[in-house]
Amino acid sequence: MPLLVTDYSWTQTESTVYIHVPLKGAKAATVDIVSTDEYLKVHYPPYLFEAFLVEPVHDDRSSAKIGNGVAVITLPKRTNRIWEHLMIPTENKKEIRKRALLKYQEKLSSESKSKGEKQRTEKKYALETMMKLEKEERDSIQKMKDAERKRITAELDAWQLRRRQKAEEEQVKLHSQRENQNKPQAKTEKQEHRKTSEREFKKKKPDLPAPRTSGNIQVTFTPRVFPTALRESRVQEEEEWLYKQAEARRAVNANVEMLKDQKEENMNPDWLKDKGDKYFAIGDYLSAVNAYNLAIQLNRKMPALYSNRAACHLKLRNLHKAIEDSSQALDLLTPPVAANQAARARAHVRRGSAFCQLQLYAEGLQDFQAALKIDCHNEALQADTQKIRDIIQGTAVNPETQ
C-alpha cells in the first residue's frame, strides 16, 4: 500500500490555486504527476498525494514545477471565486479517480496521435522537398543534355553544308575542264610560263615525312563499391558505412582467433556452463563469470548462462550488471510455460535482490511478487516479500535480501 502524503499546503487567489507537495528526498525523474479538471495525483514511490478538487479547473493550462524538495502545482480556476475547501468530502473517490485517469489516458492518446500526425506531415514535406530538388536537378541535367545536343547538331549541319559546297565546287571545276578539252587548245606564253613555274615549285618542294600510324590506348577505371553514379551518391555516408563494415569484420576475426586458441572442450557451451557452476559452488565468482562469458560468446540463446552470471554479479556486488543479465534471461524465457517456471522464478528473485540492494524497493517488490506468483508455496520467498513491504511502509529495517 502506498503512503498517503498529509503534510501538503495550498494557497489561492480568485483565479488560481497553488498546491505545495513535499517530495521527501525523491528525485525529479521519479515523480509522476497526473492532473485533470477535477483530480490531481502526485506519486513518488512509496508516497502518494491525491486531491479531489471542489470545483473544476483548466487542466490544459495547469503547470507543475519541481525543485528544492517540493512540487508546486498551479491550477487556474474556471470560475473566479474563493474556495472554502480544496477537496470535496465525498465517498465516491474511486469513481472520480477512474474517470479522471480515463480522461488523462485519452488526453495522452490524443497528444500521441497529434504528435504522430505532425511527424508524418514533416516526413511528407521532407519527401516532397527532396523529390522537388531531385526533379530540379534532373531538369537541369536534361537542359545541359539538350544544349549539348543542339550544339552537336549545329556543328554536324555546318560540316554537311561545307561538304556539299565543296562537292559543288568540284563538279563546277570538272565541268569547266571538260569544256576546255572540247575547245582547241591555244597555248599562250602566259600558260607556258605558269606551267614552268609549277614544275620548278614541285622540284623545290621538300619531302614530307609519312603520316604516323594509328593506335589504341587502353584506359581502365577502378570500379566503385556502390553502383550509384558519383553525382547522385552520398560519399560521406558510403565511407562511414565501409568503415563500420571493416570494424565489424575485424571484431569478428578477433573473436574467431580467440576461439581457435581454445581447446576442443572449451568450444562446448554446456561444458563451460558446468565449469562455471563448479566455480560458483566453491566461491570463485570471477572464474565463474569468465566461463559464462565464453559460453555466451558461443551461444547467446541459453537463458541459464545469463541467469547464472547474474548470480555471480550479485555476489560480486555488480548490481547493475546483475539486473541487466536477469532481464536478458527473462527475455529468453518466453513464452512462460511450465518447463521454465523455476528458471523464471530464480531470475525474478535475483533481479529483485539487486534492486533492493540499490534501495529501489518498489521495483524489487514487483520482481519478488512475480516470483511468488510462480512459486506461491515458497515460505522463504513469502517472508522476503513481506520484509520488503515492511520497508516500503516504514515498519521494518532494511534486511539483507537474497
UniProtKB/TrEMBL annotation:
This is Dynein axonemal assembly factor 4. Coiled coil: none annotated. The keyword Nucleus applies. One of its GO terms (cellular component) is nucleus. Residues 3-87 form the CS domain. Residues 167-201 have a biased composition (Basic and acidic residues). It comes from the Eukaryota. The keyword Hydrolase does not apply. GO terms for molecular function: nuclear estrogen receptor binding. It is found in: Cell projection, Neuron projection; Dynein axonemal particle; Nucleus. The gene is dnaaf4. It holds the Pfam family CS. SUPFAM superfamilies: HSP20-like chaperones, TPR-like. GO terms for biological process: determination of left/right symmetry; epithelial cilium movement involved in extracellular fluid movement; heart development; inner dynein arm assembly; nervous system development; outer dynein arm assembly. InterPro entries: CS_dom (IPR007052), CS_DYX1C1 (IPR037894), Dynein_assembly_factor_4 (IPR052004), HSP20-like_chaperone (IPR008978), TPR-like_helical_dom_sf (IPR011990), TPR_rpt (IPR019734). It comes from Echeneis naucrates. Residues 167-216 are annotated as: Disordered. CDD domains: p23_DYX1C1_like (cd06469).
